[in-house]
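Hey, resending since the last one bounced:
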Amino acid sequence: MSLIPSFFGNRRGNDSFFSDPFSLDLWDPFRDITPFSQLSRENSAFVSTRVDWKETPEAHVFKADLPGLKKEEVKVEIEDDRVLQISGKRNVEKEEKNDTWHRVERSSGEFMRRFRLPENAKMDEVKAAMENGVLTVTVPKVEMKKPDVKAIEISG
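The structure tokens again:
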């Protein structure tokens, strides 16, 4: 599957912002323009934490790369209106008086991602797990009853 660039970040397949009714992401037209990008460039990578969302026959599965974070530093919440919220914070490393920093590339700060879940989400059965810096949130789906099909005999 190829990556297709868009104004809203790289996405898999032919999805776009406008065809995804569940996306709560907002496009920031000033994100890459100086001086706006310099205001938070040290936090930009962490603030824009990437999340994959796939749907299987049984569940909606969200995966977020959160390297260096402990599960205690991450919150997963469900709001009443079927919104999944993933948030967290990575603190800036403390500077010692005698330390000389040559490069600071790791991100710090807070992040929050929100996703509106579809009607078939079982809101009371959401599970989250963190392993090797990857948060996996699994939202089981309600089994959709298949319609009963009755064959009708054709007369004549």
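The two ends are 52 Å apart (CA to CA).

Sorry for the duplicate.
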